[in-house]
Amino acid sequence: MVTDVNKVVLAYSGGLDTSVILKWLQDVYGCEVVTFTADLGQGEELEPARQKAEMMGIKEIYVDDLREEFVRDYVFPMFRANAIYEGTYLLGTSIARPLIAKRQIEIAQETGADAVSHGATGKGNDQVRFELGYYALKPDIKIIAPWREWDLSSRQKLIEYAEQHQIPVPKDKRGEPPFSQDANLLHISSEGKALEDPWEEPDWDHVLTRVVPPWLAPDRPEEITIDFEAGDPTAVNGEKLSPADLLEKLNQLGGANGVGAIDIVENRFVGMKSRGVYETPGGTVLFHARRAMESLTLDRGAQHQKDELMPKYAEMVYNGFWFAPERELLQAAIDKASEAVTGTVRLKLYKGNVIITGRKSPHSLYHESMVTFEEDDVYDQTDAEGFIKLNALRLRLRKHFG
Known about the structure:
Blueprint: E1 7-11, H1 16-29, E2 32-39, H2 47-55, E3 61-65, H3 67-80, H4 97-111, E4 115-117, H5 126-137, E5 142-144, H6 155-164, E6 180-183, E7 188-191, H7 204-207, E8 222-229, E9 232-236, E10 239-240, H8 243-256, E11 261-267, E12 273-279, H9 281-297, H10 300-319, H11 325-337, E13 343-350, E14 353-360, H12 368-371, H13 383-401
Parallel strand pairs: 1-2, 1-4, 2-3, 4-5
Antiparallel strand pairs: 6-7, 7-12, 8-9, 8-13, 9-10, 11-12, 13-14
Helix pairs in contact: 1-6, 3-8, 4-5, 8-9, 10-11
C-alpha cells in the first residue's frame, strides 16, 4: 500500500467497480481524485460517467475521445505485424491498455497528481499492462490497485459498500451477471461466470453483440475491396476513411456476415488459463486482407522474417510491454517492411469466412511471365538442376558418409 498520496488519477468507467473505487480512494487515502474516462469506441454513452463523477464531488473530470489515436497509433501498427497471440487472439483488449495508461500519466502531469489507479483485478493481465505502462512513462509514479488492497472480495460486498455510501447501483448489477464484457473499437471480450467451464458451449444469442452468429448470416456473400498505403488500410469499397471510421466500417461489414467470433482458452501472463469469447469482426477482415496484400508485395525473406518475429511481438503486446525498447525495435523493422505494402485487395465475406478473390499493387513482385506454364523466354529451367544439386549436397554426403 502506497502512502502520502495527495491526488490520484482514476481510470473511471462509471460502472459499479470504479464508482466504488472512487469513493474508497477518498475514504482510505483521503486524497483528491481526478477521473479519466476514455472513449475507445466501446459503443456506450460516456456522459453518464461524467455526471456520476460530478455527483460524487469530483472537480477535475476528463472524458476523452481517443478513437482515432487508438486505431492510428496502436491498432494499425500492431496489425502491420500481423500479430496473433497463441494462434487465435487478435489482442483487442491488450492493445487498448497502453493508450489508457499513457493518457492517465499525461493527465497526472497536467493536474499535478502523484498517483494513478485502475480497476483491474489481481488475477488478470490488465493490472500488469496498466502498471508496466505507468512505470515506463513515469518511473516515480505511485500506483494504487484497490483489488490488491481492499477486502471487498465479492460482487455482493461491492453492492453493500455502494449502498452504504449512496452510490447508485444499476438494477442489472444486483444479480449475478452471466459474464463480464470489455469493449473497444477493435473487439468485445466476454469472460467469466457462465463462460468459465470450457466444455459448455456459449449462449451465442446472448454473448454476441457485434457479430451475427455465422449460421444466421446472409446466404449470399458480400464482396468488398480494401485499399492499402504503406501497410495501413485507407479505403473500403473505394471510399477514403479515417482510421477509426475505417475500422468501424469493417466491423459493420464483418459482423453482419458472421466474421470474427471465436471461443478460446488462452494462457494469461500471470500463469493461469482463461476462457473467453472474443468478437473482432473488422480486425479479422483486416488481418486476412493485409496478409493477401503482403503476399504480393513482400520479398520472401522479408515475409518469412516477419512471420518469425510475429509470435514474439504478439507476446510483448499481450504481456504489456508496448513501451519496451524491444517492441519498438521490432516495430521499426516491421514498419520498414510495410513501406511497399500498397494496393487493393478484393474479398468476399460469407457466413464467418473471409475469402480473398483478388489483389493488385503498383509494387507487386508477382510476374506472370516468370510463373506461366506457357512458353517463356525469361526463365531457363535447366538452371534448376544445379540449384537442386547444390541444395542436395549435404543430404547426399550425410547418406554416403553418415
